[in-house]
Predict the structure.
Amino acid sequence: MFAGNLTYQIASSEGDKIMPYLFKGFDDTFSERVQANDIVIAGANFGCGSSREHPAVGLAYANVKAVICKSVNRIFYRSSVNQGLPIIVLPEVVDAYKQGDEVLLDFEKGEIKVGEKIVKFAPLPSKLMGVFNAKGLVNYIKNN
C-alpha cells in the first residue's frame, strides 16, 4: 500500500505527502481518484507486510469512510483506529461486491448495503465511534 523505500523519506504524520504514493504499483490512479467518504473494499489480510503507519495515515487523510475487508492485519487495524479510519471485517460484503455497486454504510444501524444486499453487523461501541468521529485517538483524548 506504501513503498517501504519511502518510509524514511516521508514522515508518518505527513498525510498530504503520503497520498500520492498510496497503492502505487497496484492501482496507480488510486490517489487521484479517491474521494472523501469513499469506502475501500479489500480482500484477506488487509494491511499485511509491515507495521508502518503510513497507509493508515494516508487513507485517513483522504477521509476514506471505512475499509471493508475479509480479514485485517492486527497491527494495521490498531494503526487505523489510532488514525480514525474504521476497518470493518465482513467477508460476506466483500464476496457480494461487484465493481460499480453502490455501497452504503450505516455505523449506527450496523448495516451495509452492497448492491441490493443488506448485511448486518454489531454496531460499533460509542467510544470507538467517538475516536472515528474525532478523526483519531489523539484528537479524541484531547477533546475528552
